[in-house]
Write a structure and sequence with these properties.
The complex is a heterodimer of chains A (574) and B (184). Chain A is globular. Chain A is 39% helix and 17% strand. Chain A is α/β, with parallel strands linked by helices and 574 residues long. Chain A folds into three domains: 168 residues, Thiamin diphosphate (ThDP)-binding fold, Pyr/PP domains (Rossmann fold); 171 residues, TPP-binding domain (Rossmann fold); 175 residues, Thiamin diphosphate (ThDP)-binding fold, Pyr/PP domains (Rossmann fold, 3-Layer(aba) Sandwich). The termini of chain A are far apart. In chain B, strands 5, 6, 7, 8 and 9 form a five-stranded antiparallel β-sheet that branches. Chain B has a four-stranded antiparallel β-sheet with strand order 2-3-1-4, with helices on one face. The chains are: A alpha/beta (574), B alpha+beta (184). The interface between A and B is large, with 63 and 42 residues.
Amino acid sequence: MSNLMSGAKILLECLTREGVDCIFGYPGGVTLPFYDALYDHPIRHVLVRHEENAAFAAEGYARATGKVGVCCATSGPGATNLTTGLVDSMMDSIPIVALTGQVTSKLIGSDAFQEADTFGITRPCTKHNYLVKNLSELPQIIHEAFYLANSGRPGPVLVDIPKDVFQGHYQYQPVNSIHLPGYKIHLDGHAGQIRRAAQMMWEAKRPYVYGGGGILASGASKELKELVETLDAPCVLTLMGLGALPSSHPNFISLPGMHGSYAANMGMYECDLLIALGVRFDDRVTGRLAAFAPHAKVIHVDIDPAEIGKNRTADLPIVGDVKRVLSKLNKNLQEMIPTHQAQNAAGRRDWWSQMRAWQTEHPLQPEFSTDEIKPQHLITELDRLGGGNAIVAVDVGQHQMWSAQFFRFNEPRLWLSSSGLGSMGFGLPAAIGAAFARPDKTVIAVMGDGGFQMSVPELATIASHGLPVKLIVMNNGYLGMVRQWQELFYNNRLSSVTLDCFPDAEKLAGAYGFKGKTVDKPHELRAALEECFAEPGPYLLNVKVTPFENVYPMVPAGGAINEMVLGPVNPVTV
Amino acid sequence: MLQVISILLENKPGALMRVTGLLSARGYNIESLTVARTTDPTLSRMTIVVDVDAGLRKQVIKQMNKLINVLQAADLSEGPSVARELVLMRVRAPMESRASILKEAEIFGARVIDSTLEGFALEATGEAEKLDEFIDVMRSYGEIDVTRSGTVAVSLEPRKLRLSSPVATGTAITSQSTTGVLNG
């Protein structure tokens, strides 16, 4: 009976076999046996200050590495607090495994203390979820959870474990194989479709690459670069795709969509072939669907068959892993060079001169002022210090859009953004996760004064571990994005968007035992940022920026992608 | 038009909720749903009749096929199929109308499964529309009490069932991740 192990120890054994060495969590009554087993186990547990942030930190970890992030919470309120992070990772296809404690099996359904139907509540928040009924199933379920989280289209998987399962004992046998007959992953794209795609690409006069998070999930940056260079096509990357192609690459245009550049959106509007790679035609990208890329045939590559034709009908769908599909596609493109490349070369040259003209006409231009710090000024200064190599975790709102416009990324997995769900309070805990995952990297958390205040408790986590995170608050005294919409669409009736009583950053950081500062003069910004970046520990820099700056260009919700508001003037329709 | 969806799924707790959740999350009302074990006790067969916007039918089937517990979801409205429903009914039958009730029941192919002084219990199977008529006819004799099973349907074309093979643990597609410092 040498292998008779407690459920808690079996769980730790399975996590170890999955390569886990870091869990973000918060203990409670029913997870006591698990935390007791963790006490002298090599897996590191990071105690957050709110369970929602455990999920966000696990996401930050996963986004920065591509590995499964792990979070843990107790039953009832612990589990319900995780749900925002679960939905967030579901929307952005981020692999996390959430472990929750549940009340003892025989109490389930009795309205026991801290009981909630976690399995039911999280069903629509996860790719898949489990309620462990017997300890004997636990190893199988844990390995299935990790496999599901990080294969196919990645996503969150939750495992709900009753207290008696942690406490029970079982003859542990390592599980070496799992079988999920209904879980079908389509990795290799259809060879004939790929060949046709290559043909369509050479036949296009105005090809346009629209890449997203799927490129990062499949690790297809190299293949994307090769495709873009072979075709010499312009490339836009969504909020989830930023960094898939280095920002310095001459073919990279910018983010498209609601706050995309003029050139990016005009390119979308005028292209004759849209090469959509690992994207889901989100409404923030497409604007009014009927007016999106109206002249284009669409090639859509995605690992999830349900994404094909969901929002925009694909003329040529390819279901498969973007990396695998692109490497075959690139081979096809190469083979066709002698016969096809010259065919529309002139057309494609004209396309580029048109793209360059749009870029020159209305570039993404940061604003500067000598009187006040412009938000764009702050981002460009941060970008200068990060040099395209820092991890940038952002929150949600105006600062997020300016960050997407003005940060440069030399490689993938540097940009951590709650993109689909848009969860405020994401940036700071995501930065914590990234700081644990990539201690070799500078980690910057850029937040608005709204989102930052949703994350204040985690300053303790940062202080406790002395994490050298650069905490930058872009403070305009408002819930800036909501204020912008109220200004533009609700007659400037600013309803409940004033964020007064922001704490003194120096005192706040000081209360946690690290440095903080407030800066509000443009000529002091650079020195303040340099001090922040030079600090070996955490640093909170509160940057007071122009209160009424708006993010432009802007495609109003439901508008056509070519109908952008380019600045604080009248809309330009082309 | 109503969509008839046939689903082969794992016979596990929560599997039903995953399927119905997809429909309720999109605001679709389920007209009928039947589920029962197949000859393989680890699997269940479900037939759902639901009113889905024509443009979204394919999407609903795709989303169902994404569910881990679902082995196959198919839209039976697309190809040849047969659909049947069972009705159990209690009908009050005073002496003077018993003969004609039995005659009507025979026309609809219904069987008497219980007979008392008060009336009959009847069982009928058929297409949903035919059973609607049967119920209307029986109601004309007086008070009735009806339970319908909901539609069960089978495709008349063989459908290839594609299943995934077992995988070794710890082999989550490695091409999908970059080198990280922690967690493997």
